[in-house]
Amino acid sequence: QMADPFLYNTGERSQYGCLGHEVQIEHIKAYVCRPSFFTDKAVIVIHDVFGWLFPDIRYIVDLIAGHGYITVCPDFFKGTDPWKPTDHWADFADWMKHHDPMKVDKEADVVLKYLKEQCGAKKIGVVGFSWGGMAVHHLMLKNPQLTAGVSHYGIIRDSEERYNLLNPTFFIFGEKDHTISFDQIILLEEKLKQYCKATYKIKVYPGQVHGFAQLKPEDMKPADKPYIEEARNDMIDWIKMFV
């Protein structure tokens, strides 16, 4: 019997009134939020397994936009079903085969083109959570157009090529994340030290489980709140430093 993939309960969520709007970018739908003033800086947000419609991820988009970035969360599942909290964990591996976080390059290119040509973006960063954290890790190895990345609890496993990051990348982990062992984080650190020429940072937040960093304030438990807020500030600081 395997553990459930996500320890956080996705059922108990407060409603969220989004500040942005939806757009169609070639074959992809996307949620976009812009700051109230002109900027040529942008951030792509990559959702977790619950997809681009999930309120938590839209909250993150709005939050980053509030810091002065054109922020966009594309539907990287291209209209196919996201994972649902009611789905059976036994089917997860099969679902992942059809939703590979290392096959996001085409969609990322479409969104980069949109940000540069339609929005006038000159510097573009990327932030991702869980499934999206793996996608960020992958893209930071492959796409030099992305100025900086923040990967939340997503490690690409079983590949020697996964350490030569092209641009500054920040890896955020929860100490109690049962999907990523501490050994994997140590290995990541050792290998980055060996192979990575770009700036990188790894930080583990005490007591935090998988999925901790994308909660809205009213959904946070008081004991977790300081760590979630710290991770969020660290994410914004990293983006501001490089994008």
Automatic annotation (TrEMBL):
Pfam families: DLH. One of its GO terms (cellular component) is cytosol. Residues 28-241 form the Dienelactone hydrolase domain. It is found in: Cytoplasm, Cytosol. It comes from the Eukaryota. Gene3D superfamilies: alpha/beta hydrolase. One of its GO terms (molecular function) is hydrolase activity. Belongs to the dienelactone hydrolase family. This is Carboxymethylenebutenolidase homolog. It comes from Bucco capensis (collared puffbird).
